[in-house]
Specification:
By secondary structure, this protein is an alpha+beta fold. It is built from twelve helices and seven strands. Among the domains are: 73-135; 137-212. It is 44% helix and 12% strand. Strands 5-7-6 form a three-stranded antiparallel sheet.
Length: 220
């Protein structure tokens, strides 16, 4: 790729990467990593001196920023699945972020963007496997089945604040679908606040023991 040699006195946020033959995401990441300094000319522009210095280091900059742009959860999880040749469930990227292993560096349409450089250099297969098992997301029906409860019982658990959704996605006809994490379901099955044998033994049509759980106060 040939760099543009036409000299300007200053460069704007689109001119700089264009003339340096950097993709916009490469340019943004280079700034985030401190490889390209903040604008030094009024109006959010860079001086010719700063531009020329960056061009002189362009190969080093390209190598440092990597080849994978910052991506959303689906692409992040697809990348990890391909990298380690394992099944990576939806929710893994968010779980890795919660555990401090995958930085969130921005957002797109109100959804987090995960650091492509961290994904590209990720080496720990076991961390991915653990995050995939813990962060796996389930819709309400599947979550109730995992707990072995009726849907009405599931609603009692949510009402009481013993279980909360981890994420909301858009379903068919613009409906909102709440998703629940596997680790939260696992934690709930170990809760001593619930007499699980009694819950599971309650026949359909009979009042569930969970119906007596106090409703979680708003703002609590």
């Amino acid at each position: 790729m040939t760099l543009t040699t036409t000299a300007l006195t200053s460069y704007g946020p689109l001119q700089f990467p264009d003339r340096a033959c950097l993709a916009l995401w490469q340019f943004t990441r280079a700034q985030r990593l401190g490889l390209i300094p903040a604008p030094d000319v009024s109006g959010d522009r860079w001086s010719a001196a700063v531009f020329d210095d960056a061009v002189a280091r362009i190969d080093t900059i390209r190598q440092a920023v990597g080849t994978l742009p910052d991506v959303g959860a689906t692409r992040a999880e697809e990348h990890l699945a391909d990298r380690f040749s394992i099944t990576v469930h939806a929710g893994t990227a968010a779980e890795l972020a919660r555990r401090g292993h995958l930085p969130v560096v921005g957002e797109y349409r109100d959804r987090p963007l995960y650091c492509g450089l961290s994904l590209e250099t990720f080496r720990d297969r076991r961390k991915v496997e653990r995050a995939s098992a813990a962060g796996r997301l389930h819709m309400r029906d599947a979550a109730a089945e995992i707990l072995g409860v009726r849907e009405s019982d599931f609603d009692h658990l949510v009402r009481a604040g013993l279980l909360a959704h981890s994420e909301i996605v858009e379903g068919q006809h613009h409906t909102q679908v709440r998703l629940y994490r596997q680790v939260d379901l696992d934690r709930l099955t170990r809760s001593r606040r619930i007499d699980w044998p009694a819950v599971h033994a309650t026949p359909r049509g009979h009042r569930s023991p969970l119906a007596s759980l106090p409703t979680r106060s708003v703002g609590r």
